[in-house]
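Form 7-S
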Amino acid sequence: MKLVLADDHTMFREGLHALLGTIPDMHVVAQAATGADAVTETVRHNADAVILDVEMPGQSVFATVAALRRQRPHTRIVVLTMHQDDALRRDLLTRGVTAYLSKTDPVDTVADALRTDHHSLPTNSANAAPLSDRELEVLTLVASALTNQQVAQHLNLAPGTIKRHLANISDKLGAVSRLDAVRKAHLLGLL
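Output:
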């Protein structure tokens, strides 16, 4: 997979390049310090994916995402940021970002997001209803490796209620299992 890394912090970019270089199917073909350069390099190298920081000099991340979607509609766009802003995450996902991840996430999470076909993830309100607070609570506990029975005990609910919540979560995220729901929620920045 050909990647472009876009972040205005050179040391971070080079560190991420080194980490991704340890993964056999990941090949960084270019680096950029601005959104405009990220678009140029992505098009020039016919990149499969681009990793973007939210705050870079020049054009906004929204303009960068729009240009990438216009010029390379099938390129995966992973936003990697220190900002955990739910409104920003939702807005970017609606605009076609594949995943919104934290810079504190492990490199394997980034690699998984890069490999995920963005068409398999719900990215806008037409494809996915938002998870309720209770559904997020259930999914967070499931992500902590608790069984349905343990989640039910923790939340003082019936196990059948937990199963219904998990079915609703799976429907909303297009997930085929508990593990898939956790993975997709993480890639969407919900967890």
